[in-house]
């Protein structure tokens, strides 16, 4: 094996380790939260442990992608890993829930670098797009693998060691990724210092954080019509409008809006948004369906098939994308999404468990897995090389935005349905009116199943299942829209580009790309 091939393999290994670390983190942490609450308390703020991470990673993703295009991917990948490791170490030492939340912000900022830059390095490392597509599928499989292993690993670590090691475990993986990249990749230096779009970066963060916080807090901490939520939406809208105005005039915009003139880039962005809607909705509500409706002891049995099949879907799509037009694969992907949404809309309390598992496999194999790799590949192959970093960021950005919007809107639909069900239960079972709020909370069924009368338990399980299935109507409309968008992306397919002479070429500064 040549020296170049060895270095290439080491770089891919480094990217896989970094991506494994970042994706493993969320699933491990979710499995350890009970132990965290037992140790440092803060049950009422526990959702912010995840919200803070999501806000930080989503709002910085585009910024890191652009800066990596301007100053070198190696540099900002190492910065991101460094921030992630710092946040991990601090999270492991947290003494209060507030400290843990703020340290998760540091982790999230680092994660905002790892995701987009990992994929952009892969795309610029391999001259043949078909080979890049296959490796992109493997990277997508890393995401699925961590999602499957994370809950079990998190439970094992928190029960036999300490919840703090769920964070400390990131440190050796991250250090290994950093060291491999430091010694295997040379970084070219730009001939002139690019100008940074500071205003664009600030406005992007303000717009993203304000909108996502409104969606996260709406209907939970504050009413949707409250001044707090309306104010956040207003700030997000104003900042978003100013961001677009700034980007149209900036010499080196943080988000080059011209990339969306490409039909494939615009189409993939919309499709990733659609994927985020059904993916986050499923992750948020199917565990609830398994425990509250089907009476399962835990949710791993329902999520594991979906995540395991996601691995296969990510790998297979990488090979399919190398042989078929993007439009063909994307349309099939969205069409299967329509089928999955229809099936999810028919969930019920008496559905056979094997049928539920079959739906999960379809969702992972046909809907979630393919776009995990294909979205990154198609966009990266459609833009100028100097925009590969930002284009890779765009894919993850819109998937996260779609996820938050999807989960928030579905929560509105499910909660509204459960309120109607609780009122019906009050009249049907002669329950005191002051208990309507309790009945509308699925935790009542999960934790108090043995105390509830059998007929009331059966009724509420059926109503919760109906409410969740009703919520997936949003996913159906979104996936139908996605199928139509898929038909509009054009006839693009992989085309082999000029070979790169050395892996270090991927660090070429903007002037060399021009």
From TrEMBL:
It is a multi-pass membrane protein. It holds the Pfam family MFS_1. The chain crosses the membrane at residues 47-64, 76-95, 101-125, 132-150, 162-184, 196-215, 227-246, 266-290, 302-322, 329-347, 353-375, 387-414, 467-487. PROSITE patterns: MFS (PS50850). InterPro entries: EmrB-like (IPR004638), MFS (IPR011701), MFS_dom (IPR020846), MFS_trans_sf (IPR036259), Tet-R_TetA/multi-R_MdtG-like (IPR001958). Its main location: membrane. Keywords: Cell membrane, Membrane, Transmembrane, Transmembrane helix, Transport. It comes from the Bacteria. The keyword Transmembrane helix applies. The keyword Membrane applies. Residues 11-494 form the Major facilitator superfamily (MFS) profile domain. It is found in: Cell membrane. NCBIfam families: efflux_EmrB (TIGR00711). This is DHA2 family efflux MFS transporter permease subunit.
